[in-house]
Design brief:
eight-stranded parallel β-barrel; 19 strands; eight-stranded parallel beta sheet; 151 residues
């Protein structure tokens, strides 16, 4: 399935397909398909049973059954069964069963993956131990606030 505006931006509420979805110069509320390709396009949540490729575009939360590749774009949190690769882009967080490669000029808030490669110019806000420590600290603060409010 293709949504192609050829010079104009097309706005679609949702796209669901059993096969591949390719979007160029389009805005879509939600995308669901096998392999999803966004080029100069934006989407809300993206769910793909296969791979996702974003070039000069972005999306909200992203779940992929395969690899995820972002070039000059971004997304919300990513959950991928395969590898995640980001170059000149960013996302909120990455949970990848495969590896995570952060290329030049990329940014990720938190990464959880068995193999993480951070190249020159890439930034990761929190690693797994830092995120665990932050979560524990927030838990303690909430417990103390709850206890003080009860008493």
């Amino acid at each position: 399935m293709e949504a192609n505006g050829h010079g104009t931006v097309r706005v679609v509420r949702a796209i669901e397909a059993a096969g591949d979805v390719t979007l160029e110069r389009a805005l879509v509320g939600m995308v669901s398909g096998r392999d999803v390709h966004l080029t100069m396009a934006g989407a809300g949540p993206v769910i793909a049973s296969g791979q996702v490729a974003i070039n000069q575009g972005g999306c909200g939360p992203l779940m992929a059954g395969g690899d995820v590749s972002i070039r000059q774009g971004g997304s919300g949190p990513i959950i991928a069964k395969g590898d995640v690769s980001i170059e000149q882009g960013g996302c909120q967080s990455v949970i990848a069963a495969g590896g995570a490669t952060l290329g030049r000029q990329s940014f990720v808030g938190m990464v959880l993956s068995p193999r993480i490669e951070v190249q020159d110019g890439a930034k990761v806000l929190m690693t797994v131990p830092q995120a665990a420590a932050f979560g524990a600290a927030v838990g303690v603060v909430f417990a103390l606030l709850f206890r003080a409010r009860r008493g």
